[in-house]
Amino acid sequence: MQFGVFTVGDIAPDPISGYTYSEAERIDNMIRVARRADEVGLDVFALGEHHNPPFVPSSPTTLLAYIAAQTKNLVLSTSVTLMTTNDPVKLAEDYAMLQHVAKGRLDLMVGRGNTVPVYPWFGKDIRQGVALALENYNLLHRLWREDVVDWEGRFRTALQGFTSTPRPLDDVPPFVWHGSIRTPEIAEQAAFYGNGFFANHILAPNFHFKQLVDLYRQRFEHYGHGTAAQAIVGLGGMSFIAKRSQDAVKAFRPYFENYPVFRGSKLEDHMAGTPLTVGSPQEVIDKVLTFQEGFGDYQRQLFAVDGLALPIEVALEQVELLGTEVVPVLRKELESRRAPGVPDAPTHGSLVLAKYGDAEPRQPRPNPNRGDNLSGTSPYQDSDPNVEANFPVAF
Asked: Where are the alpha helices (DSSP H) in 102-183?
């Protein structure tokens, strides 16, 4: 099972000190959180995509590429990549490039986004949000698996003989999770392709997402990818940890109750009624084990630990406590409870092995004699790349 942290890159005034991080400081702090997650043995760092203040991660691929160079083992992901306001052709190229830069330590979570003003900024209509997300992902799926794509849809110009470059690393696309908070169509699409399904699992009552996860599991089995129990499920969550429960509540209360989204709420009410966990390491462990009891075996658990204006020193301490006191116990406990036959979350290595076995992975090499793709044949050479080619000369 994979454990990690995810961030939305929000900025807000510290309710105790009154200090507000600059955008530059917040970006640097996210990098520090990722580095610490790598150092303490967490598996995943996921970055949200936002295009409106007070959030700063408008270019996840840029930041994740830098983090890839700063870390050794982390799988880098998104939470989420917007399938609605982004062009799927650009997504195919950007994330394939990032996959190469990260040497395969990449997957991504796609979703539609629900911030109303963002859609018209990119020439889109939020009323078409679900249809946009579905159509754009259908195209992205093909662009990563077919060297030459002819395509026509509702929301972008048609493609004729198009090749997305670079091709995915080892000709194996990044694994995709579909993130959703309320959309059965997204769960259906995830199941259709055998992709993963990720439930946000933060701003809602306990097990609010169970019906959607169950739907995804049923449809995953319906499409022949395995049993419902073998479906690839991820969950979010929010935690704040201290050695003693009362210290955790005391330290976290001003940040939670003064944050704009939660202002007017009582921390204890959210602790009791939602997946939010504030307490000792053992209390966090106990709460997460209830997730497995309610949702069944799942493959990825991410925690939001650096938002709500928490000082970076506190956020880094949260990552440290997760990595040293919470996750090691959860790994052991959840593995002991896991039903036989439930797969691990896919990684680049496991996907390469599934596709090629012991054979060498394909390494696409452009054919220098092909200046276009309009013939509908592959623009990549299949012969020995060391054989001298006749390059066309232009004057």
From this structure: 118-121, 129-143
Cα separation of 358 and 250, whole Å?
A: 55
Structural domains of the chain, count: 1
Q: Which domain holds residue 9?
A: 2-356
CATH number at residue 346: 3.20.20.30
Q: Are strands 149-151 and 159-162 parallel, antiparallel or unpaired?
A: antiparallel
The answer to the question of residue 297 being in a domain is: yes
User: How far apart, in Å, are the Cα atoms of 46 and each of 18, 105, 345?
Assistant: 28, 12, 15
332-358 as b/e: b if 16+ CB within 10 A = eebeeeeeeebeebbbbeebbeeeeee
CA 352, CA 346: separation in Å to the nearest integer? 10
Asked if 182 contacts 208 with a C-beta cutoff of 8 angstroms, the reply is: no
CB under 8 Å to 31, separation ≥6 — which residues? 63, 66, 67, 70
The torsion angles phi and psi of 24, rounded to 5 degrees, stand at: -60, -45
Q: Is the distance from CB of 148 to CB of 161 less than 8 angstroms?
A: yes
Residue 57 inside a domain? The answer is: yes
Residue type for position 99: Q
Query: pTM of the prediction?
Result: 0.94
Contact 68, 76 (CB under 8 A): yes
Helix runs in 52-110, H state only: 60-70, 88-101
What does pLDDT average to in each consecutive run of 10 residues of the chain (395 residues)?
97 98 98 98 97 96 98 97 97 98 98 92 95 98 97 97 97 96 92 96 90 97 98 97 98 97 94 96 97 97 97 98 98 97 97 97 86 71 47 32
- In this structure, is residue 372 part of a structural domain? no
In whole angstroms, what separates CA 147 from the centre of its chain?
25
Task: Name the residue type at position 16.
Answer: I
The span from the CA of 317 to the CA of 277, in Å, is: 16
Structure tokens at 239: 């935690």
Residue 395 lies in a domain: no
DSSP per residue, 239-285: EEE-SSHHHHHHHHHHHHHTSTTTTT--HHHHHHHSS-EEE-HHHHH
Q: What angle do CA 385, 389, 393 make, to 5 degrees?
A: 140
**Which segments of 122-273 does DSSP mark as H helices, in order?**
129-143, 184-193, 210-222, 245-257, 267-273
Query: How is residue 94 written in tokens?
Result: 């950007």
CB-based contact 232:346 (threshold 8 Å): yes
